[in-house]
Amino acid sequence: MTDTNPTSGSASSPSLENLLHETRSFPPSEEFAAQANAKADLYEKASADRLGFWAEQARELVTWNKPFTETLDWSGAPVARWFADGTLNAAYNAVDRHVEAGHGDRVAIHFEGEPGDTRTVTYADLQQEVSRAANALTALGVRTGDRVVIYLPMLVESVVAMLACARIGAPHSVVFGGFSADALRSRIADAEATLVVTADGGYRRGAPSALKPAVDEALAPKEGAPATSVQKVLVVRRTEQDVDWVEGRDVWWHEALEAADPVHEPVAVEAEHPLFILYTSGTTGKPKGILHTTGGYITQAAYTHKNVFDLKPETDVYWCTADVGWVTGHSYVVYGPLVNGATQVLYEGTPDTPHRGRWWELIEKYKVSILYTAPTAIRTCMKWGDDIPGGFDLSSLRVLGSVGEPINPEAWMWYRRVIGGDKTPIVDTWWQTETGAIMISPLPGVTATKPGSAQVAIPGIAATVVDDEAKPVPDGGGGYLVLSEPWPSMLRGIWGDLERYKDTYWSRFDGLYFAGDGAKKDEDGDIWLLGRVDDVMNVSGHRLSTTEIESALVSNEIVAEAAVVGAADETTGQAVVAFVILRGSHANRASTAEGAAEVQKELRDHVGKEIGPIAKPKKILVVPELPKTRSGKIMRRLLRDVAEDRAVGDATTLADSSVMDLITAGLAAPTAASED
Ligand code: WTA
Asked: Which residues make up the binding site for CoA (predicted)?
């Protein structure tokens, strides 16, 4: 299978520069187009009757206990109700119906632990295990509507726990295992969860790392914090590490499941019943609990998974490298693939353990045909060199996906050439925790793909780029990305804060969903994403809030003021750079190189404790002042100039224009604290 693109040809390793210069787009091969799930007429079908189109997807891809009669109720805008009079169960759709259709023996999950242990889980196995877990949760007092927090590494149990919650109609809230005890505590409190599922630990970078101590700490009484609502903690045994045990509260997962019946009747819930809450960073310090409901969400997760990745459940082996702690793991490890009956790889560890070819080794081993990952990972592998993937047979790959941040054309080309053997379509998929599923992406077999551009809204979705006055920009123009029609998997609000939902997404432009991303349209009308236009950073495809990290820094007694920016970073897209003013005598501590290094370590650890290791600033610069406007707003643009080693831009709106000179002069001295 090769592309028919006349310019890319199969010339051996042409220089990247030439490729970028010559290659504007890669049309699908005839062979791929002929067998693709998506055909070009999908766009026309969807635009001719948008609601009819979604109703058809919902009927075709999802099994309903009670069929819906109304597709969309938008009378309560901006809170949508999709398929609202229908009832269904998400776990039944993801598991049982495949068994009932005779596919019980199909592998649902090829699990690969970091140490190399493996486990094969068929759909029939999954049905039994999810049923046991659902019975165990019920026995532990969880009722339909109760919230369950899941804080686990990437294990089969993570998928099982999520589906067990869905099975009994208890919304799950998965908290990424890299978040700290404090971050976990605030999420548990906000969701008022009654049960937490965790593990003794997991394997990471060749060693067991502990997880349960963070749960113990998050649930321990804390002065000033309300008592926790959590009654029970279910603990998966993964690493055999010693754990502290709270009698009456803590229960081993394996014991609870062994004691539970392997048969369970899934609870049919209304389409608008909450399926999960997932916390994500916003522009203020407090993470937002993004609420997703059942029917619309699984419809769009399944529809996009089928068409954007061209999934053929009988023959494909799919692998999404995202952690279930992020939305990509929800929609494209759990719900999308399983509702479609896919066979997938689930890998616990990091790409470089025990060696830098681990991912490619897994692709060869399981004959992975569809790979979905993030630009940061691609750029990292690119840095490690072509030889590493070159040592493995990657010829099984036929579709490659990218998500989480803009993918630069160089990385896109490398991904296609080195990983995709110069033949695979690449789907650059734009979406958000809030959108629930993919919104903008090429369709393989239909769209001629373009390095660096997510291109077009998928059929059924209305996305556009507008200027400050909400007017659509012409081709060639830039502005803000907005979504102009409700979509099935859209968030239904922010948990417990409807006003914040309206404010954040619907107040900027009347009747349009404001995504917070800058975008431009090229001469062909294709969309290019340009990054966030708000105070949200994107580090390795993970969303971090500048304000949240600033709050964490100033909560340390040695910090008087802090400003955080996302500085361009070759590998991680953006990197967290913090500027801090130290309190009184502490400022002197930073006046020697060793002292500054010490202060920096202290503050990085502090941020790690407050939020999690992912939020630790890469650089902390101790400064005497921060650049502020007359109204007291920090001018991050100027700090970004400093962080990115550029000449400082226009500083005339500063209250005190000499501040930037002070900052840059101070940083030129050898005392500036920096990690590298
Ligand atoms: C960014 C991840 C450019 C964007 C699914 C968005 C992207 C934020 C892309 C959401 C892409 C995601 N190209 N930027 N293909 N995909 N983003 O909620 O800024 O973790 O608003 O969801 O990531 O991040 P989130």
From this structure: 204-207, 328, 540
Complete DSSP assignment for 286-297: SPEEEEEESHHH
Residue 405 Cα, ligand 1 centroid: separation in angstroms? 5
pLDDT at 20 over 60: no
Extents of the domains making up the chain: 542-674
> What beta strand segments (E) does 418-512 contain?
426-429, 463-466, 478-483, 493-494
Backbone angles phi, psi at 662, to 5 degrees: -60, -45
- Angle, vertex CA 211, rays to CA 599 and CA 116, nearest 5: 110
How far apart (Å, rounded) are the C-alpha atoms in residues 165 and 182? 24
Extract the tokens encoding 336.
Answer: 């999308």
Contact criterion met (CB below 8 Å) for 256 and 140: yes
For residue 282, say whether it is annotated as part of any ligand binding site. no
Mean pLDDT in residue range 575-586: 92
The CATH code belonging to domain 542-674 is 3.30.300.30
- 588 by Cβ neighbours in 10 Å (0-12 / 13-18 / 19+) ranks as exposed
Distance set, CA 515 to CA 74, 511, 536 (Å): 19, 13, 12
Residues within 6 Å of ligand 1 by CB: 280, 326-328, 403-406, 428-433, 454, 515-517, 529, 532, 538, 543
Cβ atoms 557, 294 nearer than 8 A: no
Residue 422 neighbours by CB under 8 Å, 6+ apart: 2, 3, 8, 10, 416
Secondary structure (3-state) at 252: strand
pTM: 0.91
Contact present, 521 and 527 (Cβ < 8 Å): yes
**Looking at residue 534, what is its pLDDT?**
87
Residue 171 structure tokens: 């919304």
Cα–Cα distance measured from residue 303 to residue 306, given in angstroms and rounded to the nearest whole number: 5
